[in-house]
Amino acid sequence: MIVISMGKIIFPMMALLVLALVPEAQSWSKEGHMLTCKIAQELLEEDAAEAVKNLLPRYVEGDLSKLCTWPDQIRLWYKYRWSSPLHFIDTPDGDCSFNYARDCHDQHGNEDMCVAGAVRNFTEQLMHYREGSSDRRYNLTESLLFLSHFMGDIHQVWDRDIILQAMSKYYEKDLDVFLKDLQKNLTTGMWSNEIPSWVDCEDLSSCTDEYAAESIGLACDWGYKNVTNGETLADEYFDSRLPVVMKRIAQGGVRLAMILNRVFGGEEEEEIPWPT
Ligand SMILES: *[C@@H]1O[C@H](CO)[C@@H](O)[C@H](O)[C@H]1NC(C)=O
Ligand SMILES: *[C@@H]1O[C@H](CO)[C@@H](O)[C@H](O)[C@H]1NC(C)=O
Ligand SMILES: *[C@@H]1O[C@H](CO)[C@@H](O)[C@H](O)[C@H]1NC(C)=O
Ligand SMILES: *[C@@H]1O[C@H](CO)[C@@H](O)[C@H](O)[C@H]1NC(C)=O
After folding, report:
1. 192 CB under 6 A from ligand 3?
2. How far, in Å, CA of 23 to CA of 41, rounded?
3. Ligand 4 site, residue 191, Cβ cutoff 6 A
4. Is the minimum distance from the CB of 118 to ligand 1 under 6 angstroms?
5. The whole model's pTM is what?
């Protein structure tokens, strides 16, 4: 079983180690989610920026990142208990792949109940935004917060410890300094040429499956490579894995923006024709 859980993948034999190493292993990667949302919001085109602003409650003053961790805060509330299995994916023991039909379900076998199903679900719900506000089937504010959060979860392959270590080692514990460095690498730095391939996507459902498969692959190749139970993770582990974590945060943000721009944007082919 591999669990992508709030930015963490745990092999059963690893669970103890991770818990022992990271006292806050049960508190989720707040910083990673905020960074992903901050990156995304900066990349929104006009229509999407406007829609996001309209959907956010007034008190966050237009800042999506302030509510990107909301789905973590409410997941155990009675009203939102249904959302709890949506934060992760279980894949079979030792299998480093993702197969939607096989893997995307909750522990009772209910289909679509995993993070990849959730990304599809809330993307579809947000498509109703352009139809106007008369449709009350969904609370689109919640759909936006869930989508923004789950795009983080589907990309984050480690617990927040690695992000927190990076924050104090390189960024004076300042999220904005961290963000600036990520943005520099996106706009002029090492990732600037890769962005077109990150957002290259014909069909959002299959792209979502790819993002999940990437995370599972990275967890197998990096997360738990060369780590044995009971071992204390060395600086070398941290330094070699950090670039992978950074890139996933950035990819999550860039791809969240891509989805929001599509969902809210006025693409020509989707323009509503005049009645005749
Ligand atoms: C989709 O969202 C609705 C709430 O709007 C929820 O009841 C349902 O469980 C969700 N399903 C998935 C797969 O996310
Ligand atoms: C939509 O959800 C948000 C967050 O849970 C809540 O504050 C708001 O009142 C809801 N809106 C409606 C119309 O129910
Ligand atoms: C940005 O790129 C430089 C190398 O060009 C790297 O040292 C640094 O860690 C990167 N920062 C982030 C946040 O990815
Ligand atoms: C695992 O350890 C081997 C031997 O020390 C090393 O060659 C390899 O690069 C390491 N792989 C990772 C992903 O750390």
Report:
1. no
2. 31
3. no
4. yes
5. 0.88
CA geometry: angle 240, 241, 244, nearest 5 deg: 120
pLDDT digits (tens, 9 = 90+) for 77-126: 999 999 999 999 988 877 899 999 999 999 999 999 999 999 999 999 99
User: Among candidates 7, 270, 28, 252, which has minimal Cα distance to 147?
Assistant: 252
Cα(141) to ligand 1 centroid in Å equals 14
238 by Cβ neighbours in 10 Å (0-12 / 13-18 / 19+) ranks as middle
Residue-wise pLDDT for 44-82, tens only, equals 999 999 999 999 999 999 999 999 999 999 999 999 999
Cα dihedral sign, 45-47-48-53: positive
Q: Rounded to an integer, what distance in angstroms lies between the CA atom of residue 124 and that of residue 52? A: 16
Could you tell me the domains of the chain? Answer: 2-265 (1.10.575.10)
Nearest Cα neighbor of 75 from 23, 35, 26 is: 26
- H or E element that contains 259: helix 235-264
CA distance 120 to 118: 5
Identify the pLDDT of residue 25: 35
Ligand closest to the CA atom of residue 170? 3
Of the CA atoms within 13 Å of residue 209, those in its CB half-sphere come to: 13
CA of 190 to the centre of ligand 4 (A): 23
Burial class of residue 23 (count of CB atoms within 10 Å of its CB; 0-12, 13-18, 19+)? exposed
